[in-house]
Amino acid sequence: MKYITEPLNANHDRSAFSCGKSMLDHYIQKQARQDMKRRLAVVFVVPDEYNMIKGFYTLSNYNVSREDVPENLRKKMPPSYENLPATLLGRLAVDNKFKGNRLGEDILFDALYRSLEISDSSCGSIAVVVGPLDNEAVTFYEKYGFIILPDRGRMFLPMKTIKDMFHA
Known about the structure:
Layout (H helix, E strand, L loop, with lengths): L5 E2 L14 H16 L4 E6 L5 E13 L5 H4 L8 E12 L8 H19 L5 E4 L4 H8 L4 E2 L6 E4 H8 L2
Parallel strand pairs: 4-5
Antiparallel strand pairs: 1-2, 2-3, 3-4, 5-7, 6-7
């Protein structure tokens, strides 16, 4: 699979990004570069031909309490692990000008594939975890197999499921 995103850099114009969710708009416009400098997250963007951002997502390391992991996966993990490594897909947004053409799905698949590659080669991870902002986001992620964890409303997609999506 070829990635449609690239890491955010100073050439990307973030100023006009508007997805309709002020928290996400503010993040990409004001905070994203600082998060990258501090190594809190890596921000991946889909730029247009003028380097305006059509959409973006963030990835960072995360861990999930063993007790929050679905039983079928938990029983396969060594009991000595109280917390299990995961990848946090912290934010995902599409500019309103580009909604309706499945760009959100393409960005999600880009994030899932990148997370799978990283977990296979660089940094272990049993799943991708998201923290949806609202019911619209929950519905979006459920379409792709994410399940709600019993913690603070986070959702979970095992790496095995992701691998099956791309290698079926």
